[in-house]
Amino acid sequence: MGSQLPDSGPKRPNGAREAEILALLQEAGAALTPGEVTERLGGELTYSSVVTILTRMHSKELLSRTRRGRAYAYAPVTDDAGFAARRMHTVLAERRDRQTVLARFADDLSSSDAELLRRLLDQAP
């Protein structure tokens, strides 16, 4: 096998790399292959690192993928607000006392956010 170049640039946590790639895919407005993602990152990561990150994000159900030639093309499953809502649901699901978590969340809302939440709950089916 040929030698592989290490990723250039400072080491960043996987979550930061995922967020960077997610933002890139959201801005693209269309599904991108790992090669296209690698190119748009300007050589910041190796192709194999991009494939690994995209595969991991797909397994977390953050991305959908479709065949494009010999590769997959990846796209976000939702927009930024949708991802934030999913994170909030995940945090809530991980806690035993949902009532206390929701009460503390509500207590920390600004009055305008609390009013907005009331309106949204009133409109919910």
Automatic annotation (TrEMBL):
GO biological process: negative regulation of DNA-templated transcription
SUPFAM superfamilies: Winged helix' DNA-binding domain
Pfam families: Penicillinase_R
UniProt GO MF annotations: DNA binding
Keyword terms, alphabetized: DNA-binding, Transcription, Transcription regulation
Superkingdom as given in the UniProt entry: Bacteria
Keyword Transcription regulation: yes
Family: Belongs to the BlaI transcriptional regulatory family.
Protein name: BlaI/MecI/CopY family transcriptional regulator
